[in-house]
Amino acid sequence: MNKGNILIVEDDTATLELLQAYLEKEHYQIVIAKNGKRALEKFRKYDLDLILLDIVLPDMDGLHICRNIRWQSNIPIIFLSGRREMNDIVTGLDVGGDDYITKPFDPDILVARVNANLRRHRYLENSQPDKQPHQPVESLTKREVETLALINRGLTNKDIANRLFLSEGTVKGYNNNIFQKLAVKNRTEAVNLARELGLL
């Protein structure tokens, strides 16, 4: 009996094998990715029920992956990380994670939390069948999209202000709005995420 399909995104082989063994014992089908690029490819390819997501990966961090997936789906995402500080946990939940488990972890507790997250998600899905997947990131305004496009072209705030006939302070305000809505920290992260999401 297949209880569900779980994508494990983890680059440490020992941790990956441990997770796979315990979850397969619970009758879950496992899909594996060892980096962010493969994780996004397999997310699009497979019919998944839950994602276990490490934060520190070779090519991109798990927070970035989570933000990307949240634009497309409300699939349960559980972060699995050695980062144990309170602000790390809060950040993981703020960008769209449903749960956050710190390493080292007890495999039995992890399985129980996987079961609980799936049970809650399926209950909500069944109780609201007509609900569309939520968009956790607010939509950008037309002016913010214009600003982002000019950032993508490498223009400074002053250049953007001149191009759009705005004050430099107003452009900085648009920058802050963009960073907040996309849940990123700087111009580079904003442009990279916008490209992946097809906004640019």
TrEMBL record:
Annotated TM spans: none
Domain Response regulatory: 5-118
Family matches, as Pfam families: GerE, Response_reg
Molecular function (Gene Ontology), one example: transcription cis-regulatory region binding
Protein name: DNA-binding response regulator, NarL/FixJ family, contains REC and HTH domains
Residue ranges of domain HTH luxR-type in the record: 133-198
Highest taxon above the source species: Bacteria
Cellular component aspect of the GO annotation: cytosol; protein-DNA complex
